């Protein structure tokens, strides 16, 4: 069943099976046509020999002479090859077999144990004379031998040809299938964000080699364009962060020097806006650095349970001030994954801050760590308004905010940063319904 499903999915294998079927059909058609022709010729030869044997008997002679002639032929002729029988009107039977006529059919029986009849039947002629009935029959042994010969040809020609064709075709199809699979996996990796994925060095000059080369060229151009865009984003964020910080410092100094009043309040608002702009550029820069692979050599064993305790301890005072309940659901022992503890902690902190920012006061926030097969999963659940299912993919984009969240503090980069950290660790990020509220889960692969 597995092979059948693989054949149905693989174009090269389907083509191989089709070619093998065509080869088998052509071979069988050729052998079948030759067999029909030769079998017809053999039957015609038997009928011609039968007519000559019948004509060689002197049917104009007297019954006694004909009986003598048939008896002479019968003594020297093997009944498996030719049967001669004369049934006289007086009831006498002369020949090398006994014959019984039943309408248009003639049946033969042996006259002695050492004179066996043909096992393959006979083709016969019957001539009624004034003195009796003359029967001459030719055994179908040559036709049966021809059938056996073609059966042997079928077994030792068609079947090996089909098997050899299938083996060679399957080998070629498997090679092509592997190459197609390699191209497909490369495209999947590119679609998943791994722009460094390549099919590999060009082998041969066939269509698949050209397709692989084009995929590599496309990936290289896309990678170069993405890197250039990322670099521009990083440069802009880096270059503008310092001037914005200086503007913030200047506004703080202006705020201190201005007396209380409308102008002082405007300076305070301008300072807050400058701080938010600095936070946005800082978050953009951090996301670009994470996506660029910053800190790859810092990857190591990280105990998710320990990180969860640290984050809970850090945010517990703020949760108490809001009247929220911050709960931990941790397994016993260590839950290790391979990663960067600082980045994982930041992702967890972002999720807790989002839950506190968008949820109502007095809600419940649960940080949960669990083992998941060979890996582990980390989730943060709240009892807030949640995120509509059709919006869950969009909130992972940079600077995207729900319509109802535009009146709350934030810059639309919190979940985008979490998504970048999850991708950095090869973890799957899932947003689900906590009924009520939102549950965000990061599934880490095995350590």
Structure report:
The chain has helices at residues 2-9, 11-56, 63-76, 141-191, 207-257, 262-291, 304-322, 341-358, 414-424, and strands at 82-88, 93-95, 98-102, 105-109, 122-128, 132-139, 300-303, 325-329, 336-339, 364-372, 375-381, 428-433, 438-444. It is an alpha+beta fold. The chain has four domains: 2-39 and 144-188; 58-141; 207-291, Orthogonal Bundle (Helix Hairpins), CATH 1.10.287.130; 297-444, Heat Shock Protein 90 (2-Layer Sandwich), CATH 3.30.565.10. The strands form four sheets. It has a five-stranded mixed sheet, covered by helices on one side. A four-stranded antiparallel sheet has the order 2-1-6-5, with helices on one face. A two-stranded antiparallel sheet has the order 3-4. β5 (122-128) and β6 (132-139) form a beta hairpin. α6 (262-291) packs parallel to α9 (414-424). It is rod-shaped, with a radius of gyration of 47 Å.
């Amino acid at each position: 069943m597995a092979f059948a499903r693989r054949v149905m999915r693989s174009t090269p294998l389907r083509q191989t099976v089709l070619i093998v079927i065509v080869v088998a059909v052509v071979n069988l058609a050729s052998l079948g046509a030759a067999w029909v022709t030769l079998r017809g010729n053999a039957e015609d030869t038997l009928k011609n020999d039968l007519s000559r044997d019948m004509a060689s008997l002197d049917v104009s002679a007297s019954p006694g002479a004909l009986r003598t002639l048939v008896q002479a032929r019968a003594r020297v002729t093997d009944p498996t090859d030719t049967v001669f029988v004369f049934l006289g009107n007086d009831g006498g039977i002369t020949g090398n077999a006994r014959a019984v006529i039943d309408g248009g059919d003639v049946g033969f029986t042996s006259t002695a144990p050492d004179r066996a009849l043909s096992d393959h039947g006979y083709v016969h002629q019957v001539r009624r004379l004034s003195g009796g009935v003359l029967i001459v029959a030719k055994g179908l042994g040559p036709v049966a031998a021809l059938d056996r010969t073609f059966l042997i040809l079928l077994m030792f020609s068609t079947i090996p040809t089909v098997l050899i064709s299938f083996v060679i075709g399957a080998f070629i199809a498997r090679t092509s299938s592997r190459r197609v699979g390699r191209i497909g996996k490369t495209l999947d990796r590119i679609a998943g964000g791994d722009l460094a994925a390549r099919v590999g060095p060009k082998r041969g000059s066939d269509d698949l080699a050209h397709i692989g080369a084009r995929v590599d060229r496309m990936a290289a151009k896309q990678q170069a364009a993405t890197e250039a865009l990322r670099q521009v984003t990083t440069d802009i964020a880096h270059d503008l962060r310092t001037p914005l910080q200086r503007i913030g410092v200047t506004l703080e100094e202006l705020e201190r020097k201005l007396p209380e009043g409308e102008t002082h309040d405007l300076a305070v608002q301008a300072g807050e806006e400058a701080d938010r702009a600095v936070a946005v550029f800082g978050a953009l820069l951090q996301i670009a650095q994470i996506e660029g692979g910053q800190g790859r050599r810092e990857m190591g064993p990280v105990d998710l349970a320990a990180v969860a305790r640290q984050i809970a301890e850090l945010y517990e005072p703020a949760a108490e001030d809001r009247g929220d309940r911050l709960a931990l659901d941790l397994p016993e022992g260590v839950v290790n994954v391979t990663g960067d503890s600082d980045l994982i902690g930041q992702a967890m902190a972002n999720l807790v801050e989002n839950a506190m920012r968008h949820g109502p006061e007095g809600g419940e926030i649960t940080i949960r760590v669990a083992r998941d097969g060979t890996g582990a999963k980390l989730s943060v659940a709240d009892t807030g308004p949640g995120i509509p299912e059709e919006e869950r993919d969009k909130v992972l984009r940079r600077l995207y905010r729900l319509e109802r969240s535009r009146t709350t503090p934030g810059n639309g980069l919190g979940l985008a940063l979490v998504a970048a950290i999850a991708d950095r660790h090869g973890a799957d990020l899932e947003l689900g319904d906590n009924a009520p509220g939102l549950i965000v889960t990061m599934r880490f692969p095995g350590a």
